[in-house]
Amino acid sequence: MSNSSTEVSSAMPNHGLRPICFMVMPFGIKETHSGGAPSKVNFDRLWELLFRPLIERLGYEPVRADVDLGASIIRDMIERLALSDLVLADVTIPNANVFYEVGIRHAACESGCVLVAATWAKAPFDTQSMRHEPFALAGTDMTEAEARDNLERLEPRVRKLATSTSPCYEMEGFPRLPIGRANAFREWLRAMNDFNAEVTAVRLEIDLETRRSRAKALLAKQTEQGRLLPLTVAYELVKLARDSMDWKDVVELITQLPEPMRRMPIFVEQKALATSKAGDHEEAIAALLELIEHSGGSDERWGLIGGRNKKLFRQARKEAKSGAAAEYLNRAIESYEKGRLCDLNAYYSASNLPLLLCLRNEPGDAELASRIAVTVVASCERAIELNIADEWVYPTLLTVAFQGGDLDKARQLLPRVRRNPTQWKLESVLADLDDAVSLQPQPSLQTKLGEVRDQLRGALAATAPR
């Protein structure tokens, strides 16, 4: 049997029916869990107002998965995905069933799979390099005016993409790949294992100067002679450069990546962070706002903007520019609050709010700071319990201990931080610890927390190159 949807449909008897477009999408009303987006989307209304009319305009018979009860049987569903002349998939939210069905179509047919998503949707890492046709959606229910505008924009684009090649068939010989490809894959896997071992060895190096030197050597080795980096290697190198080298090195590395890779959200985020750390906060904020405009907000993106505004606040405060300091403080709080609301289980944006709210000290700020601090601790503990904690979970708990005046907890964490100050992100959190100490109302507690803070600063200084 041919793998081409066009060949399959032409071999079937023609009873005057239009070619079939199988719609893959969630149904009912679903939460988005995405910043800069409506909290929920009514996908049934999307189907009725936008996708069904779009499919009919394109000349296809529209079929939606959840309409046909037989599609609940996986064999029937696979058959429909393989035999339909076109598959249109709405990947606005990260829905496991939708991505599974898209994968089946990509493997089953050479062409005829088009992805669409709301303009604010955040594509998962594995699909960021795939083309998504955007459509506007401002609220839970698409309006008739939005539907008319979207139809005009989407019709020519989807028509053009209907014959585009699936990612699987961009590999020569798929699905019966030559044995040489299997051998090449094994060689690639061995090379990746060696690369990961080298990265781990660099990260385990305690001496900061030696680690920086080894990181530079590994970076030079992987990028020599204009070698084309696989996505996973590029991302690991960027993270290694971020954690072991100068920020200008990170900016230079990302700038040298191929343009399609360089424009992916994960690299835009990292370049914005590095640009800010290198001293250009405004450029970093502009790049992140543009990313949010095109790809949607997230706890990470709004948190990065909040962090840049927090640095500008401290810089203005140091220079005694009270008006600018107040403005940047408000911007930082606003950005972190948007990030917090993107994902209430995350702690990046939320963990920065209690301290900044207390520094602003407007009516209601202290009470809000206390409530958010409780949720931050709960989010960190949840991440640790579920084994999904990232590198910031323990630095966050350290900062929360200082903010809450928990001297016992701060002292308990001290020896652990001393063993690896870099891992605890002391260079980043010490400014927060300074503010947290200064806000303590009891002089004796302020003094004792200050002593712990000074020991942490000394531990970081001991790791600095000489």
3D architecture notes:
This protein is an alpha/beta fold and 466 residues long. It has 3 domains: 5-170, Rossmann fold, CATH 3.40.50.450; 178-263, no CATH class; 264-461, Serine Threonine Protein Phosphatase 5, Tetratricopeptide repeat, CATH 1.25.40. 62% of the residues lie in helices and 6% in strands. The chain is built from 20 helices and 7 strands. The strands form 2 sheets. The chain has a 5-stranded parallel sheet with strand order 4-1-5-6-7, sandwiched between helices. The chain has a two-stranded antiparallel ribbon with strand order 2-3. Strand 2 and strand 3 form a beta hairpin. Helix 11 (265-277) runs parallel beside helix 13 (299-318). The longest helix is centred in the middle third of the chain and has 26 residues, at 179-204. The termini are far apart.
